[in-house]
Structure formats: C-alpha cells, structure tokens
Amino acid sequence: MTEVESPPAAPLDLVVSIINFRTAQMTIDCVQSVLDDIGDLRAHVVIVENGSGDGSDVVLTDWLTAARAENPDIPVSLVVSAENTGFSGGHNQGIRAMKARFYFVLNSDAVVHKGCLAALLADAEAHPETGLFAARLEYDDGTRQISCFRFPTPGSEMIRGAQSGPVTRLLKRYDIPLDMPPAQEQIEWASFAAIMLRGEMIDAIGLMDEGYFLYFEDTEYCLRARRAGWGTRYVEGARAIHFRGGSAPVKSLAKARKRLPAYYYASRTRLMYQSHGRIGLLAANLAWYLGTGLTYARLLLTRKVNTLPVEREMRDIWTNFMRPLGDRRAPK
Hints:
Number of domains: 2
Strand order of the largest sheet: 1-4-3-2-5-10-7-11-6
Shape: globular
Distance between the termini: 19 Å
CATH architecture of the largest domain: Alpha-Beta Complex
CATH class of the largest domain: Alpha Beta
Order of helices and strands: EEHEHEHEEHEEHHEEHHEHHH
Largest sheet: 9 strands, mixed
C-alpha cells in the first residue's frame, strides 16, 4: 500500500473514505462534491484505489497532482492498494489512514448535496449515544431511496423466497426494508453508501469485518454496534445522490436471473451465522426453500409469479455452510 503525501498531523473532525474500483471519473466527481461541501470543517478525504488494475491509479494520481498544483492545501490523500481488498478492506484502509472524531463512508457512485456533512455532524453532536448516522439517499431525480432496514432473519428469507404479497403481509415484522423516512427506533441497519461512523465507536468495536468481500458487511457492522449499545440514526437533512451500481454486478445479475458471484453467498452465510448461529443459518436456508416452494406452486396454479430464483441459487445458498466464517470467495 502506498500513499500520496502524508496525512495531516493534527486530529480531524471528519475523514471521508471513498473507494475507487474501476470508476475513476465517478470517484473524482464524488470527491469534488465533498470538497464543495467541506467549507470550514476540519475534514479530509481519503481515496482508496482498491486494486482496479485498469489504470485508475494513474488517473487519480494525475488528477490529485493537478489539483495540488492549483491548491497545495487541498485536503485529499490517495491510498493505492496492491489488491482488491473488498468493501470492508478498502474502507478500513481509508479509516486507518488518519485519526478523526468521525468517519464518513461514501460510495464512489454518490455525490453529496451542500450541507450534507454539516447536517451529519450536527446530528452526531446532538445524539452522543448513537454510533452511526445514515444520510438520506436519493435518485438523481430527487426521489428518496430505501436505505434503512431490519436485520435479515429466517422470516425475511421466507419472504424473499415467496415473493408474495400475502406472505409479506403475514410476516411484515420480518420484512427487511423500512418505510421511508423511518421511525428512528425501527432502524436496525442502514446502507453504507453514505454513512458516518463515530470514531469512539470504532475504537470500541473495531473496524469492519474483512471476512466479507462485498455485501452484508454493513449489516454485520450495524449488528455488532447494536450489540455493543451503539444505535443507528437516519438524518433526513443530510442528502446524497446515489447513482447505484458503480462497481458491483450483483443487482444487474439478479435482475437478469443470472448466477450471482460466490462472494455474495459467502457473505450471506457469514451474516446469518453471526446473527443467528448455525441453527439460525439452517433455518434461514430452509425458510427460503419453503418460500420458493410456494412460488413454484403459484406458478403451476396461476402461471403468474413476480420472480423466480436466480440461476443455481438452490445450491449456492449452501456456500460455506460447513465453515460459515471460512473463505470469503473473493474473485481472483
């Protein structure tokens, strides 16, 4: 791992961690939106070039060199990782880069509105018992995205398998997405596309779990924080546009019902095991089978279903079942 210039010596109020993986121009746009919002805040941006292997390191280095020529004091550092360390590993590098009271984890496929950072920090000062502060995520037309959730359970896996209105209504208390904006007490976890973490909480519970390559690491971190007494809040006044899907293929594969990457199922298994133990993991898989069975029964009877399982999912949900904390199945 290498860094462009040394981080500031004095502790900061806020460090913004942004991972780049083959989205160099998108990352630059993201960083620029943060720089436009920093104002008088004692803040610094850390870009983690996460082993893209497509020349992104050169593009970002050239951009930062040119930016420093115009403004030698620009609060941006670049960390270049020799390999793709995943979402957790990438942001852990960003967080380790320098000390701050708060850390804003931000996707490269997002841009912040003016006032986003100040709103997050103000909410954090008003709620010292809370460890995580989720920004309002929007589509580019301003429509609010669903970004706050309940934890996955065997009940939610039955909902996911069944894809049926009656089943969802019957098991409503297990349905993962929350109505937006959510009641603060309902929030169990929130998207890490744009979320601020309290440094004191990180010191207490540790960094993100690098046993996750991609997906579910945000859920696990909120679960670990909650178990340690740190809650999650939604900050409506902190707005960010989230374009979605900048460097991850899972949503597009799922929409096309193509086979999902092994790391997705390895992360799902790890989370279910850490949340509910081995019996809970087994129950989640069996609940998904039951829900999926209802889907196929409905298909036979009515020829109408919302969706069917993706390719090979009936086998792939057993990924790492015997060793839930084993290989994270990162792509080679």
